[in-house]
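TA notes. Do not distribute before section.
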Amino acid sequence: MSGSGGCEWEKDWSDVERVCREGLGGVKPELIDLSAEYWTDVFAPALDSWQVGATPNPDVSCNSEIKFKALPKQLLARDPTAWIATGHYARLLPSPLNPSLPALHRSTFAPKDQSYYLSTSPIQALARTIFPLGSASSKEEVRQLARKWNLHTADKRDSMGVCFIGQKRKFHEFIDSYLPPAPGDIEDEFGKVVGKHDGLWRYTIGENAKVGGQRERMFVARKDVARNAVVIVPAGVDDQRLSVDGPVAPAAHY
């Protein structure tokens, strides 16, 4: 995505140009700038969610709104017979309900499976998509193929973290640059104030809560949006606040 300050797209684009030049017979790639769409349809909604204490997943939204919506809209408008190929570890097989449409399946290589991140992507775009890595047995198999074809990216380090933040920044520091401070209390399971926080978006339910002065490890059990409070409980405590019976899915997609 061109125009993103956190994502190191310039380096990735340089790799694309070199692969096309050296490994694909001089194919000339084209860079499409979808940064405005990313801001409107992915990042701004994510900021709204973080601000009210939710934990959005921008990587899922990026696939559904950008890679498999905004991008195909442009490509297929130019050429309705065009296909999209990405490096996602996932598979597309004929749907048992309608064989003319694809059904999303997990990757053969479970440790790298990314079908979850594609789970809300439009079926119309997936119908024109190919996932070449979906049947790979391992990451090393992919690297070996890249070496066989003399691609300079064969041993490139795996990308980690949220793409728009990059690998050199801490998540909360990045979000802090977009959201104003919203200080509140950190409470223990009995309602006693044990610390202060600068914003609910700095805490994720179930994660380790780094609060000073505690005798044991504490975990985030709940975020009380109405009171702007974070509730923490000790590890190992027999408390339903650290477990759930099932998920709540307000926007089911199937």
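Switch to the second chain here.
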Amino acid sequence: MLVCNVMTLSFFDGYYSFTGGYCIRLTFLKVYELVVRHFLACVSQPAVGAETVVEINIAGELFSTSGRMIILKNYLDVYRYETWAGSMIPPYLFGQQFTPTTLTLDSGVTRPPPLLSEADLLSCMDKSGIGTDATMHDHIKKLLDRCYATKDANTRFSPTNL
């Protein structure tokens, strides 16, 4: 049996009780909050932001970075499930020159993309407009017949040495 304290907002046994005698589960309260915040965000003004792209030429080498700045939050104040996160950089004017305070050289290696399964390959072919639904499997069969690629135990394609 569930008994609600009618005068206060209290939490007990996974339920909230409100003045007026209504009791709702915490999960329903979260869904209700999501729906209400989404509705209020839909009728709020759009957020306004600016993105700055900085391209730097140092000794003939080109570097670039970008950053985002929120000018007016508007609906972002209401709808806390979405943020405009990103790196913040100071505003610059076009053609502005500056002296960098620090320069660091990070070493790293590139990694090849993961091997594709047949479903991944079909999806990539479809996005790139290669073949039709009727001919895509023939293209894959030709890749295997001509030894351009092999299938491993996990049914992933591996390129062969040409």
